[in-house]
Amino acid sequence: MTGIEYFVDGFDLDCPETYREEEAEDTSEDGVINGKRGYENPENETNAKRRKISPAADGFKPPSTVYRITDTDKVKQVGILEVLAFGKQVVEAEADTPVLCCSDYPAKPSKKSAQVASNCFTYDAVITPASYQELQHGVGPVSSPLYAIELLDLFKKSYSRSSDTFEYPASHPPSVRLRCFKDVLNHVVRNYTAYPAAHLDIPPNVWVLGDLHGSYKDLDRFLEKILPFGEVALCPEKILCLGDYVDRGKFGLETLMKLLALRALAPDTVYMLRGNHEDPEVCGQIPVYGSESLAAQCTEQFGSSNGKELFSLCCDLFTHLPLCATVDSKVFCVHGGVPRFWGAAVPGKDDRLAPLKNPAKRIKFPSLFGPRVEAILDGCQTKEEKTEAQRQWLLNFDLLWSDPVKGKTEPLDVYGFGRSDRDSTVASFSEKAVSTFLDNHGYDIMIRGHEEKAAGLKISQNSRVVTVFSSSNYQGHENAAGFVLIRKEGKIDLLVLE
After folding, report:
1. pLDDT, tens only, 121-179
2. 3-class SS string, 380-422
3. Closest listed residue to residue 244, CA positions, set 401, 366, 97, 376
4. What pLDDT score does 342 carry?
5. Distance of alpha carbon 363 from alpha carbon 279, whole angstroms
């Protein structure tokens, strides 16, 4: 790791070998050291030494406690919002406790506070006991979710639900918002890189949201009803989003970023699946979606160069999003629907989802269309590799794009699949296809999104499929916004936002 030094209870994670270093003499009254702002030495020792220890050389162990300076001149464990996120108690440190301090933090420690390491790092580089796990997986420096807290606070102050508008304050110009957006994106991507999963297993109880399509108002209304005191870390249930956060709505970027900020703060509470619009070849279609496309909203807020960079970061995130989830071992959740059946590799075994269970064998598709797919297929060395890549592409495509069969007159194959009226390349699944898939995998029911419904919800396919759509008045259609609560034993409540 390079670029940022981490000091945890006297240990330096960036140091290649053990050594000791002289600290520069503090010759100023305001704590400026070598041209950088630091903290005054409480004891005015101008030649204090700082020990740097190599993790490899000294058997570095994860820190059990991380402290910071607060504006009350006391040294406490991480702040209250971080405590909620990481499940730690707030405790005051003893006077001789080693401290991680932030060079950007305005407060200075008192002489009785704690030993302070000057010029250590900024808030975006705080390491905690939770984030250390990611360092163990070699994913590089881990950002603190403090930018996520800042971003959620900014959205709260800037959004007016009555007028459905954002008015950002002068204190948060585009450059500051861009920094927050990028930090949250990078934080979540690192989490997905450290813990890759294409098929999630989530315990009950779980709130399920369907397509939002930039409807920040509906997301805001929903969260207001389920988050105690507005804090995601206090939510007793999980939250599962089925995809299509962007496009066809005014605030696709803000909707996406709010969910990512919530996930950064509470990754064991907020889960996000990939939808068919989480694809650069879809959300980048400015000629199709105009100002409501994700690409257009990125460049509109941040200019051409920064906007394209932000859009690229969003698309990188989409590559890592899980494709489906199982709740309580009984409910299968996905954006689109049932994947087509190619025939079992092992006779009598339905292994359609097998590639998703093994992260090492999973092929991640940045897009399901165009040159990005061709590049993956061209990179296959053998016929078997190419066949596997094609099979995984079809699995991804069906999970994100397929629809229920609309009528009984539609021609179906032997497994119960036909063609969707959405497009000739998109599959449709019948009652037979759904029942076979669910029974073979031990599921009772499937919850999906992908289709607008007038009531926000619809039950179909012999009552084994629930479609949930969570964007109200979608494209001016005056539809309702639905959502679902999955309780224990697979019990399901269907609800509509008032």
Report:
1. 233 333 444 444 443 443 333 344 778 888 999 999 999 999 999 999 998 999 999 99
2. CCCHHHHHHHHHHHHHHHHHHHCEECCCCCCCCCCCCEEECCC
3. 401
4. 75
5. 15
